[in-house]
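lol ok so funny story. i was supposed to be doing the assay writeup but got distracted and ended up predicting the structure for this chain instead. priorities right. anyway since i did it might as well share w the group, maybe its usefull for someone
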Amino acid sequence: MVDIKVATDANFEELVIQNDKPTVVDFWAAWCGPCKMVAPEMEKLAEKYEGSVNVVKVDVDANPELSRLFNIMSIPTIAFFRPGQQPMGVVGFRPLEQLEAQFGLAQYGAKASA
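and the output, tada:
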């Protein structure tokens, strides 16, 4: 199982903004039902793109500064940060295939299945 990093107000800049790899960020909260549905999709994404795309989770309740900074009004919000470009995001549950299409992840190359 791939390790999904947890970003906070304190380390978000380092984990996401200054990262040289594209990063998918899951803005979620423990009490959010749809967020629980997104979690396995994030794990699949992290596994499939290990080494080429990072996956990071942000608890919006514990990190209100990030929620404000990125104008997170609804959760789950899945945002895609590419180095040197504006982030793009989608709100609500999306299966892996929709996230791949929405963010153009195929160009980053999925990890070869064993």
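The chain has a mean pLDDT of 93. The first helix runs from residue 12 to 17.
back to the writeup now i swear
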